[in-house]
Amino acid sequence: MATNDAVNYDALVREDRVHSRVYTDPRVFDDEMDRIFHRGWVFVGHASEIPKPGDYRLASVGRYPIIMVRGDDGQVKLLSNRCRHRAATVCQIERGNTRFFRCDYHGWMYRNNGDLASVSYPDGYDRSFRKEDYGLIPLPRMESYRGFVFGSIAATGMSLKEYLGKATEQIDLFADLSPEGEIDARGGIHKYSYRGNWKLQIENSMDGYHPNFVHKTFFGMLKRKGMQNPTAHFGGRSIAVTRDFGHGHVMLDYRECNRKAPILSVAPGASEYKDTMVARYGADRAAEIISSSGTHLLVFPNLVMIGVQLRVVRPISADETEVYLYPTLLKGVAPELNQWRLRGHESFFGPAGFGAPDDLEMFERLQTGLKNDLDPWLILARGMNREHRDPDGTRVGHVTDEVTQRGIFREWKRVMTGREDESEQLENARLAAVD
Amino acid sequence: MESLRERIESFLYYEARLIDEHQYNEWLSLWTEDALYWIPCNSDDADPARQAMIIYDNRDRLEERILRLTSTAAWAQQPRSRTRRLLSNVEFRAIDGGYVVEANFLLAEIRRSRQDIFAGRAIYTLRGNGNGDGFKIVLKKVLLLNNDDPIDNLTFIV
């Protein structure tokens, strides 16, 4: 792309609105791949998916095909799925267990830690060819937090811990629903796709304004069954809030709504579960974990955590997206409780669920509407008049307010324009002072 | 008098027509109280005790599914899907009180000017012998060929 064609991101994103082009322009999508997905931290998978040495699964970081694998040494690695010889993928099966990855084109063999084990008919290469120079290339950076594995294609940048910031507290709440503090992300995968931009999914995941309209039929059914009807949680007088932790990590915080009657209190074996949790964490922390119900968080750019699920967003093109949902199991609880989680997940989510398909319908309606740009702006101003900041810097608003969408686009614009964030500025100032 | 094969095939064709013509309440009346309408996810033999399914409806949830399909606020079916399906390769065996019936299917679905094709094998447990009161469906397990690939909308009846 010639420099004079460069997209002006400052002009496309304002504090209270974004331009249609951020969802429709293939050049914007290419820039997103380069600047967001091929530079920053991207969620890849959870270590519990590959518990044994040799376990692997295919993954991607932006457009890069990779393999998440646990080597014979027990370490999780993110390896390029590309033969060093002529670039064919060396692993074709989505998940499995292997000691070796073999390229089926000319027979080169790699160990499950990425080392090149053998080349076919090696006398065709002289002594200058050293096998140790031709292993599967690991992603330049990999870090994990509580088994959540992130990769980055950039060799340098802020640490994962710094990037996640206060989002780690929400990840803790999600994982600590297990009395052993560990989730198992092998509860099946719901895979769906839609003809719309990837950001529609992350914005919608953090949208507390839509449920009473899009999910009217679902709430109607809960009412029919005499179950707790959460309509009030999503209404104009809800006591729930939106939070923006920075770096695009935002959440819908329903803890205040759940405190009196947490969702988990109606699960099978709820009182035994609660006792186990209190024994493990103490009464206060156990109550906090249970009322969080597994959080409702976006880890920018591609991981959403809602209730029982990890939701991974896979951008395909400006107007095509795939989404993988991983309902998780809790280690150390009764099987009935995990089944209750799975059946509850199915009732709303997946391509045949009673909720999520209605969201996808909205994305496609929106992507169609975007073609009419007589007024090209989408308005994200809701609640700007009542947003405030907590002492720790977190931006907070009413649950129906677009604090979360503004938080997403604040980070999006920062990354797309290549600006440093506040912490990087401080760090650079510190280094300059030392020099 | 119809042969057993004719009675079974007629029932499958009748069930298919009720779905394709959106006669959902009549379709629901074909099911027993202990019904299970099941579409496995990721693999045909996925374990419901440890994995999420695409659909795992007991009678209660099946009724909710029909309530949604007959409401006007299930946006994923506004506009609704039009479907027609072919059944073939029918095989069956007797069990206590009924039959296990298997059939391949090919299903065309069109919505918003886009046509999708779904294929697979459906496995039924039917109660009764097809005479007099006919059959009732205890179990319909649908093995979709694409159950491990992204699907955009499966909110119609398969």
Query: How is the quaternary structure best described?
Result: heterodimer
Query: Residue ranges of chain A: pLDDT <50 for 5 or more in a row?
Result: none
Helix- and strand-based class of chain B? alpha+beta
If strands are numbered along the chain, what order do they take across the biggest sheet of chain B? 2-1-6-5-4-3
Q: Name the beta content range of chain A.
A: 15-25%
Q: What sequence of helices (H) and strands (E) makes up the elements of chain B?
A: HHEEHEEEE
Helix content of chain B: 10-25%
- Uncertain stretches of 5 or more adjacent residues of chain B: none
C-alpha end-to-end distance of chain B: 31 Å
The gyration radius over C-alpha positions of chain B equals: 15 Å
- Averaged pLDDT of chain A: 94
Alpha carbon gyration radius of chain A: 23 Å
- Structural class, from helix and strand content of chain A? alpha+beta
Strand segment count of chain B: 6
End-to-end separation of chain A? 37 Å
Helical fraction of chain A equals 25-40%
Textual characterization of the structure:
The complex is a heterodimer of chains A (435) and B (158). Helix content of chain A is 31%, strand content 24%. Chain A has 435 residues and is of the alpha+beta class. In chain A, the strands form six sheets. Chain A has a nine-stranded antiparallel β-sheet, sandwiched between helices. In chain A, helix 10 (270-281) packs across helix 11. Chain A starts with 8 loop residues before the first helix and ends with a helix. The model of chain A has no long low-confidence stretch (mean pLDDT 94). Chain B has 158 residues and is an alpha+beta fold. Chain B has helices at residues 4-20, 24-28, 59-69, and strands at residues 31-39, 55-58, 82-95, 98-111, 114-127, 136-144. Chain B has a six-stranded mixed β-sheet with strand order 2-1-6-5-4-3, covered by helices on one side. In chain B, strand 4 and strand 5 (114-127) form a beta hairpin. Chain B starts with a helix and ends in a 14-residue tail after the last strand. The model of chain B has no long low-confidence stretch (mean pLDDT 96). Chain A binds chain B through residues 94, 186-195, 214, 216-217, 220-221, 224-225, 322-323, 325, 327, 329, 335, 338-339, 342-343, 345-347, 349-352, 354, 357-358, 360-362, 364, and chain B through 39, 41-42, 46, 48-56, 60-61, 64-65, 67-68, 71, 73-76, 78, 112, 148-155.
